[in-house]
């Protein structure tokens, strides 16, 4: 069915005049305290992305009988696929009123969103959205792993949702061994001339880092100054994030964005985003791990899909939790019908570089 056909069924791009109806719909379906209702969040998310479209915000609504009964949001972004850059969009906040589900509203919204880009990607979707995308032919890439580095075994075990063999393993390793490993890798990084420098905001130098780091990843969303400034510095909740450069002299080797959440009362460091030049990923995580340990965090965690990271993180003592902390962080992708050549590369999860800075994965903390 064409976009024109969907318009005839009440699906259209959001316009400012829809705001009262949209707020009513979101309050009823997301909850009165949902971030979707915050004006500053709406403005930042839909009106300020670097790849925003001249046609309007990437938010589509379905109206029936004078009310909004469904919505589909999107975050436009530039995606490097191989050596080319494609126009892509993260599919977010697909929601259909209960009484209108299984009546064609969800597919209508999803198809309209997909028609706006070369490629649509969804991360961390609800069960209902997952089923809808699956029926629509989206490729299921599995789950985004969570890497967990225990820094204080006893405190971690007290709040951990995991038991059995994992708990015994962590207890057996013990704090002294973990601390020694942390010192060792961080010391090696410093011996190579690397140091972790906290910064107030990102600057133009990350463009050079992006150009140097991007070629090692087959499929990755652009992480240049424009993106990082929007995603972290201009974010309404910018004060939640700490930004670091890994430096050697005047050269930026990597960047890391760290957030400190509280899980059942214990501080946990969350690596929201990172990017490193070839050969510097292990040094980057070693320095961040040592900083987290020194500052008294119980653990350090990072949700990421990155074939280059699995072995170095494992060597540094990170545990790979394939299904996350509480529920699987699913990933699905759908190239546009006129872009079938993208399928082999984007359909392989080993090709992707993903962190919680992508889509809306990192909008909520561990305890939220």
Describe it.
The chain has 368 residues and is an alpha+beta fold. It contains 12 helices and 16 strands. β10 and β11 form a beta hairpin. α7 packs across α10. The two termini are 39 Å apart. The mean pLDDT is 88. This is GNAT family N-acetyltransferase. One of its GO terms (molecular function) is transferase activity. It holds the Pfam family Acetyltransf_9.
CATH-scheme architecture of the largest domain: 3-Layer(aba) Sandwich
Order of helices and strands: HEHHEEEHEHEEHHEHEHEEEHEHEEHE
- Helical content, roughly? 25-40%
Described by strand count, sense and barrel closure, the largest sheet is:
16 strands, mixed
Overall domain count: 2
Average predicted local confidence, pLDDT: 88
Query: What's the tally of helices?
Result: 12
Strand content: 25-35%
**What is the CATH topology classification name of the largest domain?**
Aminopeptidase
Runs with pLDDT <50, length 5+? none
What is the CATH top level name of the largest domain?
A: Alpha Beta
Q: What's the gyration radius in Å?
A: 21 Å
Give a topology summary.
Blueprint: H1 3-8, E1 11-13, H2 19-29, H3 39-47, E2 59-64, E3 67-81, E4 84-96, H4 105-114, E5 119-123, H5 127-135, E6 139-143, E7 146-150, H6 153-159, H7 164-191, E8 195-199, H8 206-213, E9 219-221, H9 225-233, E10 241-248, E11 251-263, E12 266-276, H10 281-294, E13 299-306, H11 310-315, E14 319-321, E15 330-335, H12 343-346, E16 352-355
Parallel strand pairs: 4-5, 9-16, 12-13
Antiparallel strand pairs: 1-2, 2-3, 3-4, 3-9, 5-15, 6-15, 7-13, 7-14, 8-10, 10-11, 11-12, 13-16
Helix pairs in contact: 7-10
